[in-house]
Amino acid sequence: MKRLIELSHVVEHGMITYPGLPGPEITDHLSREASRARYAPGTQFHIARISMLANTGTYLDTPSHRFADGADLSGVGLERLVDLDGIVIDARTTRAIGRSDHDVRGRAVLFRTGWDRHWRTDQYGSGAPFLMRDGASWLAESDAALVGIDSVNIDDTADGTRPAHTILLRAGIPIVEHLRGLDQLPPSGFRFHAAPPLVRGMGTFPVRAYAIVAG
Q1: What is the pLDDT of residues 83-115, one digit of tens each?
Q2: Measuring CA to CA, which of 48, 166, 195, 202 is 20 to 30 A from 176?
């Protein structure tokens, strides 16, 4: 038996992901009512339209997000994004996350801070847990495949140099921010998936992040 664990937040009209950035606008391009004039009686369709920032909901950062010559959404291989051996590191007892002795080589490393409990509240964007420079260096040196966190940013938002983004993305390690539900995962023994669409020229985009847990 296998269990599927949802790890993404729902994207909704007007919601705020990152304080100060506008929420998505979800509207009708073709309403069901308007479509009735185009089709046979009893047949109707709905075509929605969404206008949003790439940094909406649970999203992936590629190297292009930080570096002009880095791989964008169309340039990051699936081997970095899906069917990854996953590990959850419990970081609920500290705000500043550093190195550890976990084996992370080739794995999706997910930091469980518990901050997702504040999602869509004022507290979510203030005083959030983050990965320190030495923690990012350890992950890059250890060749982690992907790094995720259930917090507003993998960096300390007060640090304009963004060391975690810089170190990880320079090493070609994608980042998934705003995860949720990491408390439902075991420390290891699951497969992690977080693939965005193939869009050329964009460095970030929402993903449907999930895990497959065996047994």
Answers
A1: 999 999 999 999 999 999 999 999 999 999 999
A2: 48
C-alpha angle 175-17-108 in degrees, rounded to nearest 5: 20
- Angle, CA 81 vertex, CA 80 and CA 86 arms, to 5°: 90
Q: Measure the N-to-C terminal CA separation of the chain; round to a whole number of Å.
A: 5
User: Residue 54 forms beta bridges with which residues?
Assistant: none
Q: Please say whether the dihedral angle defined by the alpha carbons of residues 73, 78, 83 and 85, taken in this order, is positive or negative.
A: negative
pLDDT band at 185 (very low <50, low <70, confident <90, very high): very high
Cβ 89 vs Cβ 109: under 8 Å: yes
Contact 71, 62 (CB under 8 A): yes
Domain boundaries, the chain: 2-19+53-214
Residue 214 pLDDT exceeds 80: yes
- Let me know: does 192 contact 84? Beta carbons within 8 Å: yes
Block residue for tokens 């007060």:
158
Phi/psi region, residue 28 (left: phi>0; alpha: psi -120 to 50; beta: rest), is beta
Identify the architecture of domain 2-19+53-214 in CATH: 3-Layer(bba) Sandwich (3.50)
Find all residues with CB under 8 Å of 35, minimum gap 6, and list them. Answer: 44, 45, 46, 47
Residue 19 has pLDDT above 80, yes or no: yes
